[in-house]
Amino acid sequence: MKTNESKKEVQYVAFSTQKGGAGKTTLTVLIASYLHYVKGYTVAIVDCDYPQHSISEMRERDFKMVADDEYYKGMAYEQFTRLEGKKAYPVIESSTEKALNDADELCEQGEYDFVFFDLPGTMNNRDLVLALASMDYIIAPIAADRVVMESTLNYMIVVRDNIVNTGKSNIKAMRLLWNMVDGREKSELYEVYEAVIKELGFTTLESFIPDSTRFRREQSINHKALFRSTLFPADKSLVKGSNIDALTDELLELLK
Ligand SMILES: Nc1ncnc2c1ncn2[C@@H]1O[C@H](COP(=O)(O)OP(=O)(O)OP(=O)(O)O)[C@@H](O)[C@H]1O
Ligand SMILES: [Mg+2]
């Protein structure tokens, strides 16, 4: 049961595509942290990326670093105080098979605005189809590269024709999201690709994510401004120029 009369409705969201390395995990963490620690929403992540469990592992690293490092300990304390005792969001180590049960259980125990699912890409199993059908929103990261385009659009078509069009899914919208955009502006190439995307009946989010080394920056002993963390939002200095803020606002507009 996803809704409970006394509770507000939670939205299930997945950054999802079959294309490996498209930015699913990174975007999940960045957006979840931004919503939870900056925007005042309550989120959770269900990590179904078996067996890597990259977000659960990231959370473990993040926690360990806070425990072992006075600088991050201070930062965590300052944030905890500023957010009036708000805790870090849960990251549930799960699998495609258990994902929905785990999320439903979580939502029975607490109130969440958004639950993000980091799902694997291979569409060859029933559990993934069921999990996707239970999402409210699917955001597929895409890059302006022929191979990535083909693979991602194929994925969108499969999800639309086999899941959305059955009328039995919860999916309210699917969007494509340009990730790893080279340079500050999208080039003409994007217009060509966007025409193809439109032709197929799909919509791209207006916000796009630039290609930048900051997307690999995590908590580290040098205490440089951090970007990708499950315990803190991306540092303001790095949010600037990353479009994470614009993307979050656009998603909130879509999801509300
Ligand atoms: N906008 C970006 N600019 C630069 N690097 C990026 C960007 N987005 C993601 N990356 C990097 O690309 C790599 C792949 O990203 P990520 O692990 O999030 O992809 P994924 O879709 O989850 O991959 P997988 O299919 O393996 O789960 C990571 O090293 C990440 O830091
Ligand atoms: Mg991943």
Automatic annotation (TrEMBL):
Pfam families membership: CbiA (PF01656)
Positions of the CobQ/CobB/MinD/ParA nucleotide binding domain: 14-217
EC numbers on record: 3.6.-.-
Key words, A-Z: Hydrolase
Class of this enzyme: hydrolase
InterPro entries the record matches: CobQ/CobB/MinD/ParA_Nub-bd_dom, DNA_Partitioning_ATPase, P-loop_NTPase
Keyword Hydrolase (UniProt): yes
Gene3D superfamilies found in the cross-reference section: P-loop containing nucleotide triphosphate hydrolases (3.40.50.300)
Example of a GO MF term: hydrolase activity
PANTHER family named among the record's database cross-references: P-LOOP CONTAINING NUCLEOSIDE TRIPHOSPHATE HYDROLASE, PARA FAMILY PROTEIN CT_582
Name the record gives this protein: Chromosome-partitioning ATPase Soj
